Structure prediction request, 934 residues.
Amino acid sequence: MSDPSNTSDQNSATVAPELTRREFLQTTSATVAATAVVPALVGTGSASAQQTGNDSTAIELAVNGVSRAVEVQDHWTLVELLRDHLQLTGTKVGCNRSECGACTVLVDGEPVYACSQLAVWMDGHSVTTIEGLASNGQLSVVQQAFVDHNGAQCGFCTPGQIMTATALLSSNPSPDAEQVKSAMVGNICRCSNYNAIVEAVVDAGRRNGGAA
Amino acid sequence: MSEQINYAVEPMNTIGNGTARVDAVERVTGEALYTRDQRLPGMLYARILRSRVPHARITGIDTSRAEQLDGVVAVITHENAQIVWGAGSVSGGRQYNDPIKEATLHRRYIFNNPVRFVGEPIAAVAAVDRHTAEQALSLIEVEYEELPFVLEPEEALQETAAQIWPEGNLAPDFRNNFEPMVTRRGEIDAGFSQADRIFEDRYSTAFIHNAQMEPRCALAHWEGDKLTLYTPTQGISNCRHDTARDLGLADHQVRIICQYMGGGFGNKNQNQDTDLIAATLSRRSNAPVMLEYSRKEDWLGVHGRWPTVQYYKIGVTNDGTVTAMQMNAYSGMGPYRKNSGGISGMDAYACENLERTIYPVYTNRTVSGNFRAPSEPHGHFGIESMMDEIAYQIGMDPVEFTLKNMLRPTDAMPFTNYSLDQCIARGAELFDWQARRRVTPGSDEGPIKRGAGFSFMMFRAGVGTSSAIVKVDGRQQYTLFVGVTDIGPGAKTTMGMIAAEELGVPLSQVDIVSGDTDRCPYSVGESGSRTTIMTGIAVVEACKNLKQQIAQRGMPEGANVLIASATPNPTTDGKVRNCFAAHFCEVEVDTRLGTTVVTKYVAVHESGRLINPQTALDQIRGATIQGIGQALYENTLYDRNNGQPLTSGYYSGRLATHLDVPDIEVEFIEVDDGYGPFGAKTAGESGIILSPAAVANAVSNAVGHRMKDLPITRDRILEVTS
Prediction:
């Protein structure tokens, strides 16, 4: 929730033509890389990154435990890399501007909005998506709890909710409802299935027996 | 109705057991394929250029630079693509059909000139990738001759207001008469003369967006003269019929596929301009085209709930009997009438003397259309606030006032069953109404004040025509074909459970095929609280037929199959069939900060027999929370000076998060009235109808001032308390 009395939205002055991501990056790429938006990810682990062309770079990353060497265009976001180039469409795009959390994935175990990370920043990092949670056909504890508690209505926010919950349980194996709500505040569910989601995550913690 | 009928619900084998969705695993593993997850060989990506101004004539449009950009395959504008989007503007605002499409005076094309709202499509581009398409948009040059604009419906009816259509800003009815919608019964003047006191007030509600998580998109693909459209829709049958009509095709030339879709809440009824634009670009480029909207485009380019201004005049006697009810109201429709603009709620009262006048008004805002219970939540907020205020003014408990005045069955108007009294009594008990409400509103000492509010509703649960096919094969495995799309409530699972129950087999023995017009028969669509009832009845009838065949011919063996279909046309024998609910809400308001927290919420619903109690529960909880958001947070604001929308996104639109919502305590009263599939009614829209009213009444009870405008934001609370 934003401040109810604040009605400004700096991004809403015009609808079109919106600055495209490519144009934006052409004009501000140095600035973006230097800002503290994602301090944990920027400028680290980039030993293998190779500029291969004017606007593309070869990177190495682990996706769901598998090492991948990919050439990415510098304006690609992580969610584009996953959905359009690695065919991992389980991660959803709800707003493409860090407001809804549908695109949440884990980078080195931490939940991040994949719409707001550049793919090139993933060099040397490990990415886990919704497709990487089940092993040998066995759902993860969180996934199973979502099945049992009707955690998904339309299901579009569900991958993001599950990724954030998975990260929460790895740091806090048996959270209470308030802790779940705080950790998952960045994942919007317009079906407003919040009660069921919280029940699922709390129950997943219980089933864990306190071990993530 | 004094006659007591036993509506008891006997336990069943499958129905009534909380059941995980048949596709739950796909939903939690990312395997569920939504429209944007589809990929076709050679697929192009498309984007739309939209109006930056609220009202303008386009005097020039130059697409040459865009067309020359490497990777651009097709560019369309109003100059080279003139297709009427029938469902986008309908005289009378009804769901449109062939005659109404012909009759509709104010037609909406996929690209219009003049443009009439910020976000209206001007051009569309198909290109080899998304970035190229976006870049091409920035190369299209548009010359606008800006026109005066108007944002507020009351203002739009003044003579000096900007004219959006030649005939003025009052939207016409289905006969193209420029008249408001008027309902009259009884003698309104006589009713007021019987009253001891007359209360008058003004209420308003905001434009709020459906804001379903999946933004609009469509993937179009032609094979010869056959169009296949992957599109998120709440009704594949309607979407096919509407798309075929708009494109001049026969129904069988269009195939709609929607297996999974990311919510709609009315935003994805019928077909959309998205579908028509994607189909046109695909035709022109000889390639499959994926058209995607950004979140902001979805917010501005599709539709949300109409904003309203409601003036009430209510007459009551000293003993609390309502003698006359009058409303004059205005609904802001945007510049095209996509739906009725209705404002309901007064019909829930028995008062004989009623007059209701609603002006559906064109404005230069984003178009208004269906949002979960399209006419209800804002109207219930208005009338329930009015009645709550009257009750306190005359020293009555609002619950007692309601019990005295609410509509009840009569000999002239029988109901299939009526359980509102039980809902209210049970809710008051669970909530501890007498202890929580402040008999003197605002009487808590200190800056943090609590209060409680109540609301009630009855809502249609009518029956109607839909179709189903069921097959059994030599393995004794059943396949159910139903034209439903699972937009969130769980229709696939519900239909499967109904079939399993009727067939007397476990749910695992029933495969469900849905979401594809080439594989499934007609279904009413996931809107209007109809699927469970109407398609459910068709499933029951088809299964009965199949059982008869099995009884006569035995189970099929080997490669043989037996197939049954049904398209029943059920009735309720002239009786009103409704679902019922009562909500009780407690809030805590910090009058120093203006913040409101919901501290307790009880919802008691009668939705007939529950097919799947698990999904029914979450329909009520989810809808109730959406209504809390409407009451306290959401508003799509516009800058009055330049007509620009200011809050078109999740953050600025202030959608509720995990931290903003209470636990909703739901209790169902189950009945089987003998109609509907095993007595099932509807749950999808029910919760949102009455929750804004309950929350607003609770805030008013806490602060001791009537809150007359939604959303009840901090500044509005501080306005009355500081």
Remarks:
- Chain B touches chain A through 87 residues (CB under 8 Å).
- The first strand of chain B starts at residue 44 and ends at 50.
- Residues 216 and 293 of chain B are 6 Å apart (CA to CA).
